[in-house]
Amino acid sequence: MIEIENVSLRLQDTRILHDISLTLPKGGLTALVGPNGAGKSSLLSLVARLQPLQSGRIVVDGLPVDATPGRQLAKRLAILRQDPAVAARLRVRELVGFGRFPHGRGRLDDRDRALIEAALQQFGLQDLADRFLDTLSGGQRQRALVAMAFCQGTDYMLLDEPLNNLDMQFARQLMRDLRKAVEEERRTVIVVLHDINHAAVYADRIVAMKAGRVVADGPPSAVLRTEVLAEVFGYPMQVVEIDGAPLVLHHR
Amino acid sequence: MTEAARPGFRLLLVAGLVALFVASLLVGVGDLPLRRIAGDPAALQLLLVSRLPRTLAALLAGAGLAIAGLVLQILARNRFVEPVTTGTGQSAALGILLVTLLFPAASIAMKTAVATVAALAGTSLFLAVAHRLPPTQPFLIPLFGLVYGGVVGAAATYIAWQADLLQFIEVWTNGEFSGVLRGRYELLWITAAVVALAWWIADRLTIASMGREVSVGLGLDYRRIVQLGLVMIAVVSSLCVVVVGIIPFVGLVVPNLVSRLLGDNLRRALPWVAAAGAALVLACDIVGRLIRYPYEVPVGTVLGVVGAGLFLWILFGRAARA
Which residues form the ABC transporter domain (chain A) (predicted)? Predict the structure, then answer.
């Protein structure tokens, strides 16, 4: 369980987050949605202790993130930031292998190697495994980075806009893979999404943020409603239902 | 670069190192024919007192400087910096100058210690500024480094001028191995320990090269790696300045070349960075001994030319590849 209590964040003179309290139980896929600048990425990076906590408390499975050794947390929680700009000339297999670092501190055993190969397979990277990252397209790099986060084998995975750069086929595939990880491996996935219709189909819960506050929180059917979306995104959009899932016609 | 070229590079490097090692023992003003070494005590004396120490010093300095360059490039997240031209070497020289002025009787170990502290302070300041420069302008960091190194070097020169110590500054700033004798280079073995340490933490360094956020996400104590890296850079740079003087370009070109051929997974590439640095410095020292025989050209001068050529090749090669 991730408990976020009264978390605020201020950068220079701008308030990024206003007194956020949120509980994310173990299991399930939670989508964070909201316009640019809503504070989604900031909240994610605070949970992943990439930024120091200024006020409030964040606890992951009973471990306060600001007072737990980094390695211990790295075995429970993986984070993939939006555009980590990895410039190192690593082969895809090497990069994915570094996901195992928290477990063996660099020494890979047979189980690690099997997990690496499984991650390469799952994200369609077998043919690229020996290529250097700087020879890949943006979408291929993104898949390699997601595979590395998967390979970390943590109960909690935090992904910041993982669909960036992915074409429709791989975007859909990634959402299905995340769904599978939730259902078959009982992982907990928290993902920042801009395509609200992916959230509609794959998320168990949607947390909508705006201007540093949580404005709506609930299952897709409760959040993806015209009046709620208008409040979050600032314009009215039609919501229809197809096969029991809401579809937001946000582009019209 | 094709897969086939990589084993070729490694084989060539090992063969080259062995050949350079032997050549370095044989090349010099004193005559030292191979067949006489065993029977001739004077020849053996020359070998053990001068040639062997000089050869080892070049290998140690080269390996150390290449690794120091690699580590600084990781910490600054910029491929175009190296310690001896971005303030570390100049800070070390300034440190030695100050300790020479204030405590003329200080031992060489004492001077090295002060130089290391000065180098650490100088590099920390460089890195603190480098991290504040906008990442969208990658060439600002090397530019700032050059200006910063120039300012620290100028301060050292000014103080030396005031104290009538200019000729000493020259000794520390232009690297050469002609003064290396048994008993006067052994401190350089500490760089071997630093290279071994870098190999020990190779995985951590690779992760650090992916940036702070990836490092923290993988449970690495990023701040500690930065601190450790700074100490490694400062120790190697100041040892080299104290024992042989500033040798430019090794830390810049060698990590770039090896990265291009073998990639940045340091568990795999780091020994080759050290070996290539050692080979480059030893080769340039031998060239310096031969170019206007029987006089010598300092290795720092030779590397100034060779290193600049290699650097241009890296820059234009990069453009051609992209």
Answer: 2-236
The SS3 call for residue A210 is strand
Chain segment A138-188, per-residue pLDDT in tens: 888 888 999 999 999 999 999 999 998 888 988 998 999 899 889 988 999
The tally of domains found in chain B comes to: 1
The CATH number of the domain holding residue B233 is 1.10.3470.10
Residues in chain B with CB shorter than 8 Å from the CB of A70 are: 216, 219-221
Residue A107 makes CB contacts below 8 A (sequence gap 6+) with none
Q: What is the largest CA-CA distance in chain B?
A: 64
CB A128 within 8 A of CB A140: yes
A to B CB pairs, distance under 8 Å: 75
What domain range is B15 assigned to?
5-321
Chain B within 8 Å of A75 (Cβ-Cβ)? yes
pLDDT at B68 over 60: yes
Whole-angstrom CA distances from B280 to B26, B64, B192, B198, B235 are 18, 12, 16, 20, 21
* Cβ-proximal residues to B311 (8 Å cutoff; 6+ apart), any chain: B249, B252, B253
Please count the other Cβ atoms lying within 10 Å of the Cβ belonging to residue B314.
18
ipTM summary value: 0.89
SS3 A246: strand
Which positions in chain B touch A80 (Cβ < 8 Å)? 217
Q: Which residue has the tokens 């190296």?
A: B82
Please give the Cα distance from A60 to A46 (Å, whole number). Answer: 12
Nearest to A132 among B212, B263, B267 (CB): B263
Determine the Cα–Cα distance for residues B119 and B233; give it in Å rounded to an integer.
Answer: 8
What is the separation of C-alpha A162 from the centre of its chain, rounded to a whole number of angstroms? 7
B1: closest chain A residue by CA:
A132
Nearest to A101 among B202, B203, B211 (CB): B203
Chain segment A160-170, per-residue pLDDT in tens: 999 988 889 88
